[in-house]
Amino acid sequence: MSAIAYLNFDGVAEQAIEFYTEALQATQVKKVKFGDMPQDPNYPLSDKESAMIMESSIEFAGGKIMMSDLLPSMQAVMGELVKGNNLTISLVIDDKQKLEAYFKGLSAGGHVIMPLSATPWSSCFGLLVDQYGVGWKFNSDAVQFLDNVLASRGKL
Fold first, then answer.
1. CA quadruple 41, 47, 49, 52: dihedral positive or negative?
2. Which of 99, 128, 131, 134 makes a 20 to 30 Å CA pair with 79?
3. Rounded-to-10 torsion of CA 54, 46, 124, 104
4. Dist. CA 62–CA 114, nearest whole Å
């Protein structure tokens, strides 16, 4: 298991990735845009939203930071991004029973935004804000998602 700092941005994740890549002398950079994923015809994304970062990671000196843009539709659920609330802790755990136990424990007194479920990007994914206002993202296979999408696009 790993707990990874996850930074959310309002349309500037691409620039933030470039900044942190240089500042931290990243050894590996992975990124997927919302437009790289199959789109729901009932909820089409604008060109601006399609160009936003859905998921990314940069690795440096044994550390990792993950980042994404938060679409306006997600901000309606999670709250408007302002400097100071754009950090989420991402728990990446292959053991789904542990993932479920952590989700249950952290959701006590908090607000579940997205229950644990299978999604196009993860076999087990969920979001919540705990009772102290800290955002948590749960993902059973975040690294595989980035690798699979990038490999399918010939970008890995």
1. positive
2. 99
3. 90
4. 30
3-state secondary structure of 82: coil
Specify whether the CB–CB gap between 150 and 54 falls below 8 A: no
Residue closest to 68 by CA, chosen among 27, 28, 10: 10
Find the mean pLDDT for residues 114-121: 90
Residues in CB range of 132: below 8 A, 6 or more apart:
none
CA distance 127 to 136: 6
pTM value surpassing 0.85: no
What is the radius of gyration, based on Cα positions, of the chain? 15
Structure confidence by residue, pLDDT tens digits, 59-78: 987 889 899 999 988 888 87
In this structure, are residues 128 and 103 in contact, taking their beta carbons and an 8 Å threshold? yes
| Residues above pLDDT 70, as percent of the chain | 94
- For the residues 119-131, what does the mean pLDDT come to? 87
CA distance 16 to 44: 25
- Looking at residue 43, its amino acid is Y
E-state strands within 15-92: 28-33, 53-60, 63-69, 87-92
